[in-house]
Design goal:
Elements: H1 2-16, H2 20-33, H3 40-54, H4 59-80
Helix pairs in contact: 1-2, 1-3, 2-3, 3-4
Length: 84
């Protein structure tokens, strides 16, 4: 749990500093270790991918980022979809 909290703080701090490459490292760790942590994890993930994609000049890397963003959306729907 301590490592998880450390990763969460680093993720949020890097997003606030607009260091999205660094934030993505911590996002990926949290998604792997605890994808059910909270729905804000996915909000931060969307911010990260949106900015990385918007600032990407390499079409191959951009496509990879878009694929990763789609996987993030799938995980969000899996763990935080509204149940009616």
């Amino acid at each position: 749990m301590e490592k998880e909290q450390e990763q969460w703080v680093l993720l949020t701090d890097y997003v606030k500093m607009e260091k999205y490459d660094k934030a993505k490292e911590h996002l990926n760790w949290l998604l792997k270790e605890n994808p059910k942590l909270n729905s804000s994890l996915y909000k931060f993930g969307s911010i990260i991918y949106e900015n990385l994609i918007d600032n990407c000049d390499d079409p191959i890397k951009m496509n990879r980022l878009k694929d990763e963003e789609e996987k993030l959306k799938g995980l969000k729907n899996k763990y935080f979809a509204l149940v009616i």
